Amino acid sequence: MEFKNIIFEKNDKIATISINRPKALNALNSETLKELDCVVDMIAEDEGVYAVILTGVGEKAFVAGADITEMKDMSVAEGRKFGILGNKVFRKIDLLEKPIIAAVNGFALGGGCELSMACDIRIASTSAKFGQPEVGLGITPGFGGTQRLARIAGMAVAKELIFTGRIIKAEEALRVGLVNKVVEPDKVMEEAVSFANTIAAQAPIAVKYCKAAINRGMQCDIETALMYESEVFGECFATEDQKEGMTAFVERREKSFKNK
Ligand code: DAK
């Protein structure tokens, strides 16, 4: 399938999505959001994809936010439509039953920071910058920023960054727990691929259940969360990969998972 604003690549078990509007610092317009929506559906249905990487084309930006040029003159109805579309796509990434790694190669501002936070893991370049500058534009973060930043980095950090709109460098993002690892700019993709390959070597159904258990568990009380954990733990025993993983251990041989 041909896309205008994104590049989709598949290499063995790893799918890579690159937002491709470098002249606008990869800002998210409606067209890009629709393409993202479509590519996430494609990836969800592809049993051969075990892990996903999301990045931005160029050396300057991951995503510099929602497209301000497009949003500037939106009516209330258009703004609502845009917001619904964005939230739908971001939630789809949240619920994607495959791990997704954001390779943050530059600015991740507003909707860009929010997009990175919808991913499971963030690898940042030393030149990456994160922030939620929406209040300076007269709006609130609208693609989950108030909720995901607080859940990832804690309420105090979320309030500080969102109330002030302050943009932070990768090192600070690492210190507050917003990113998992910081590497030199030319190593971001390499590191993301290495993470993705390590994850893709595990039993994919188990990884899928872990993502669901962590995400769902963070939204409910510990008793319910632990019950859900027990449920997915039990479900693993219905998979061929559980038999393979444990048999390979006992037989002291290499395991070969089949996503079954
Ligand atoms: N939208 C559109 N174009 C953008 C853009 C953006 N967010 N960010 C940058 N660009 C464009 C610039 O207009 C410029 O285009 P030309 O003038 O060359 O045509 C080009 O990218 C290069 O940018 P600069 O010339 O500004 O580059 P600098 O190095 O000087 O500055 C910068 C880089 C990232 C500091 C600066 O571009 C900047 O401050 N950009 C805006 C960052 C920002 O405020 N991002 C947050 C956007 S607000 C909603 C849900 C969510 C949202 C909204 C609604 N609903 C529920 C309805 C989300 C809102 C946001 O994300």
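^ 4-(N,N-dimethylamino)cinnamoyl-COA complex. Residues 6-200 form a domain with the 2-enoyl-CoA Hydratase; Chain A, domain 1 fold (CATH 3.90.226.10). DSSP finds eleven helices and ten strands in the chain.
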